Amino acid sequence: MKRQEELQVRLQQVQARIDATLKECNRPAGSVQLLPVTKYHPVEDIKLLQNLGVAAVGENREQEARAKALEIPDMDFHMIGQIQSKKANSIARWAAAVHSVDSEKIAEALNRGVALSLERGDRSQEILPCFIQLSLDGDPSRGGTPLDQVTQLAEVIDQSAHLRFEGLMCVPPLGWDTEKAFFQAKDVLSGLEDHFHRSLEFSAGMSGDLVEAIKHGSTIVRVGTEILGNRALA
């Protein structure tokens, strides 16, 4: 089977799981975006996904994503990995959205980076949608914002000239029941929607737990292996 045909079959299988779960939950068809995660996979795979109608992919590593974005400028690349503040300027040049903001320092660095990129003509999109990565267990080693700091960080993002608070991103802590994690994260999201008086996105669910995430309100699922197969580790 040719690679494009393989990717098409895999995309259709994942989409079928999403559609079936939405139907089971009585949620509208099309209310969940499938974001293929292309970390460690070659740019040729992303071009094939683009041929199949995929408009956005997720990447974890800044240097790798930047190179791919330069090669495929008409594809949207979402940053979903942990961010170092020294990399924020570069991320602001290529990212269509960032799912992993976890501190005011990172938010401020991204805001400055977008302004600089616009000034230099490296970026055309004036506003960078940003998700707060939620830390349900408060463990800083895996990234994420503690529960008691989420609202303040959301306000910092939303008040920034070049950022927009888009919603939450959640990865269940190691050893946690996924249902419990997504339930808690959705509760935090609902509180933020009340605070900001608007609907927000919920980036939650990967290959192994997307069904549970959708049942708890996910609007974006990030799927890598189930679509692209095993990664050749760098």
Automatic annotation (TrEMBL):
Keywords attached to this entry: Pyridoxal phosphate
A Pfam family that the UniProt record links to this protein: Ala_racemase_N
InterPro entries associated with the record: Ala_racemase_N, PLP-binding_barrel, PyrdxlP_homeostasis
Family membership noted in the UniProt record: Belongs to the pyridoxal phosphate-binding protein YggS/PROSC family.
Listed NCBIfam families: YggS family pyridoxal phosphate-dependent enzyme (TIGR00044)
Task of the protein: Pyridoxal 5'-phosphate (PLP)-binding protein, which is involved in PLP homeostasis.
Protein known as: Pyridoxal phosphate homeostasis protein
Source organism (scientific name): Corynebacterium crudilactis
